[in-house]
Fold these 2 entries.
Entry 1:
Amino acid sequence: MNILFFISHQPNPRFVKQINFLARKHNVSLVYFHRTTLATLDDSIEKNVIRYNLGGVPNASQPFKRIWVYIKAIKEIRKVIASSKFDVALVNNIDVIILFLMASFKFGKKKHKPKLTIEISDLREFVFNDSFVSKRMRSLENYLYKKHIDKLIVTSKKYYSYHFEKFFKKGVFILENKMLSVEQKNDPAIQKKQGGKTVIGIVGLLLRKDEYVKLFETYKDHPEVDIHIHGKGHYQHVVEEYAAKHNNITYFGPYNTFTDAQRIYNSIDIIYLVYDIDQVSLNNRLALPNKLYECMYYKVPLICSKETYLEEIVMDLGIGISVNYKEPNALEDALSYLSSNSDRLQNNFSSLPQNTYFGDQDYEELESFLAN
């Protein structure tokens, strides 16, 4: 197949895994905009992937500047579409659907037309909001999906049952954020942390403020607890401010999950994966983040949020504890529970089947889903 990935940002680990997997047997092209808040993983993308960087794009707080960037990019996107007869075009949000349709309009009447597939990794706030603008956005989404989208990929089955099941009746594939076994190149020299202070880790995009502040305020300058933060994002400055003031809070900066994950997970005892579930958006309640599967593989217990799909998985498998981080002593009680049940948690990790956290079979099925 000739496959086009046209996404609104440089590929994150999830897209890198898909691109590399499909590039083993197929011709893959990648078109994307660059966002400064996201890590760049160019070195982890297979060399035979043809890439087109459309340049930087302003964030959503500057809508007119973003639209102007999109308009200027249409000419280059059109060249890419015209350069190859793509069998599949994979996009990741409504903005990119519209851009793709505008850029390919003059080719739309030709016999060859790629199957347009959209992958949804998060549900946006307009899905849950009842404002006039949100309702119009849902109407636009409904029209685009029914008229132009051939196939849908979601990273959580709850996304489909909550939202897309209402209006999308074509092909659907659930591709959770699992790891690929071929990507794991473990270094025996990197040893698992043993003893000493308890290290709580925050790993990934830094998109939570209140949740981080609660953790920092609870354990700042604690003699038996260290907090390690790996990643970059919107609230990076909050992390840096606390790290500058408190010796037991350390910010390590951005990382490459393909080269640094073993070192990071072997250096921490607990992952802090807590979300605010009292927002208009229910995305946090429905999502299954990639850190879940990384924790399974590296055997690192999780602290997650109550009343989430993630909690269902974590508690069912017995690999962590759920909290309402706003309740008094919630984090202290969670840490105490994880410490006193450490052996049982490790036994639960060891008993997990590999397909719980490795998605090798899922990716084989994805390949067939895109081809059929």
Entry 2:
Amino acid sequence: MSMYKNEPLGERLFEFLRSKIGSDILVITDSDQLNIFGQTFRPIFCGRLNQVEPGHIELYPVIIKMVNAPFFEFPTPLCFPLEKISQFTIDFDCGTVFPIT
């Protein structure tokens, strides 16, 4: 029997993510592509889970996985609304090299 039986999914996700603060996480958002500093890239981010709030998570430091700069470290923390995250993987090594084209 699950200890989360009577808790809504949002509360279970919130508690799970809060228990993982300090862990590295790979996050993919719903967007097909994003644009920052004139660079278009797939919405793939990797970083340390720094903060978890009921509606969002914050990563810092965070790496944006771009084709021409696969280890670009964004200079400030980034927040992601939970409803815009399509996939995530906890305890992901942000130094992992994988194709993103």
